[in-house]
Amino acid sequence: WRYTLGFDHDIRAGFLDGWSLQGSWIYTDNPSNLDIYEYDRHVVNLGLALLTQSAHDLCLLGGWMTLGRR
Asked: Which of these, 59, 62, 68, 61, lies nearest to 26 by C-alpha position?
């Protein structure tokens, strides 16, 4: 099983005007009949992207963190 939740917020005022705050959380539950391949995983992403005039955003700053257990 995999669940994903994310957001994207365009900032239109203040010193971060023209930037977008982005984040997501992904949960993976990987069952298996072999214990060595069974795991749960949480992945959290958070970043800033500079909004441009083109169809693509230029990502300048980002970070990630992975939490899991076996």
From this structure: 68
Distance CA 9, CA 65 (A): 20
Could you tell me if residue 14 is left (phi over 0), alpha (psi between -120 and 50 degrees) or otherwise beta? left
| CB-CB neighbours of 46 under 10 Å | 15
Q: What confidence tens digit (pLDDT) does each residue in 3-24 have?
A: 999 999 999 899 988 888 889 9
**For residue 33, what pLDDT is reported?**
94
Adjacent-strand bridge partners of 41: 28, 68
Query: Residues 29, 5, 53, CA angle at the centre, nearest 5°?
Result: 135
